[in-house]
């Protein structure tokens, strides 16, 4: 009897991993989101950059933020997870080369993000948390976390950014696909071609027709995808900036 050969379709699943940055700027310098996009451009030589997302943390006068107390996450994809410590050292070098006097940078790299990290990120959005809490959690979970100068309080936002980005349902993209190249009024199809997963209203109704104002388009990160949430305004769709 001849042998039966079973053919299997083997597909490579790309793994997501996350780099969190916070407190990299001062009152006169470029923001953390700008630096995150620069680092993402450099890492794109070796990884697929899914996007860069912005995450709002507690807005409170007790927090020594520069402008809005937001942190940034770089979301990367690869067929194999990298060594988090090696990637942290690589990004550390890029951040230190751009260190801004008076800043308190923090950096976090994680390939697997436990729920506890996402819970910490949500806590940092609503309560005042301390640097020791971030370091203690990262140490207990074996997550690569480092302060790069100043008070090093940026470790709080860096760890939070990783947890919130990994949840897939927080923040908004400051970079994904070609959205930053879109200008003026564009048809919905142009947004989809640029990398937006879907256009919809606040109540979840899909938008498939009409023109969308695309200057400074910042899709929300929902369900792990970039969604442009819009409202009708003066004859066209106006994108909303959601946290």
3D structure, described in words:
It is a single chain. Helix 3 (115-126) crosses helix 5 and helix 4 (131-141) packs across helix 5 (154-167). This protein has a six-stranded antiparallel sheet, with helices on both faces. Strands 8, 10, 11 and 12 form a four-stranded mixed sheet that branches. The chain contains six helices and twelve strands. It has helices at residues 32-43, 84-97, 115-126, 131-141, 154-167, 188-194; strands spanning 15-22, 48-56, 70-78, 106-110, 144-147, 172-175, 185-187, 198-201, 211-213, 220-222, 225-233, 236-239. It is α+β, with helices and mostly antiparallel strands. It has two domains: 15-172, Alpha-Beta Plaits, CATH 3.30.70; 177-239, no CATH class.
Secondary structure layout plus pairing:
Elements: E1 15-22, H1 32-43, E2 48-56, E3 70-78, H2 84-97, E4 106-110, H3 115-126, H4 131-141, E5 144-147, H5 154-167, E6 172-175, E7 185-187, H6 188-194, E8 198-201, E9 211-213, E10 220-222, E11 225-233, E12 236-239
Parallel strand pairs: 8-11
Antiparallel strand pairs: 1-3, 1-4, 2-3, 2-6, 4-5, 7-9, 10-11, 11-12
Summarize the structure.
By secondary structure, the protein is α+β, with helices and mostly antiparallel strands. It has 6 helices and 12 strands.
- Work out the radius of gyration: 19 Å
Q: Please give the domain count.
A: 2
Counting helices, strands and paired strands, the structural category is alpha+beta
Largest sheet: 6 strands, antiparallel
CATH architectural type of the largest domain: 2-Layer Sandwich
Q: Can you identify the CATH class of the largest domain?
A: Alpha Beta
Overall pLDDT level: 91
CATH fold description of the largest domain:
Alpha-Beta Plaits
Count, helices:
6
Q: Beta fraction of the residues?
A: 25-35%
Taken from the alpha-carbon principal axes, the silhouette is: globular
Number of strands: 12
| Widest sheet, order of strands | 5-4-1-3-2-6
The helical percent reads 25-40%
Distance between the termini: 64 Å
pLDDT < 50 stretches: 1-12
Q: What is the element string, with H for helices and E for strands?
A: EHEEHEHHEHEEHEEEEE
């Amino acid at each position: 009897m001849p042998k039966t050969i079973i053919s299997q379709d083997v597909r490579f699943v790309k793994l997501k991993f996350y780099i969190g940055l916070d407190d990299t700027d001062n009152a006169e310098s470029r923001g953390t989101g700008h630096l995150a996009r620069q680092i993402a451009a450099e890492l794109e030589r070796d990884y697929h950059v899914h996007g860069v997302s912005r995450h709002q943390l507690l807005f409170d006068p007790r927090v020594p933020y520069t402008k809005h107390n937001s942190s940034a996450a770089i979301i990367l994809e690869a067929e194999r997870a990298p060594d988090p410590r090696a990637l942290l050292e690589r990004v550390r070098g890029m951040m230190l080369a751009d260190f801004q006097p008076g800043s308190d940078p923090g950096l976090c790299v994680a390939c697997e993000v436990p729920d506890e990290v996402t819970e910490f990120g949500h806590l940092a959005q609503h309560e005042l948390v301390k640097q020791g809490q971030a370091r203690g959690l990262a140490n207990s979970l074996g997550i690569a976390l480092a302060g790069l100068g100043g008070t090093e309080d940026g470790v709080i936002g860096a760890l939070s950014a990783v947890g919130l980005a990994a949840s897939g349902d927080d923040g908004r993209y400051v970079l994904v696909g070609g959205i930053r190249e879109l200008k003026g009024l564009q048809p919905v199809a142009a947004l989809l071609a640029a990398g937006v997963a879907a256009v919809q209203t606040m109540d979840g109704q899909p938008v498939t027709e009409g023109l969308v104002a695309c200057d400074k388009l910042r899709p929300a990160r929902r369900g792990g995808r970039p969604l442009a949430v819009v409202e009708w305004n003066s004859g066209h769709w106006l994108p909303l900036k959601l946290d």
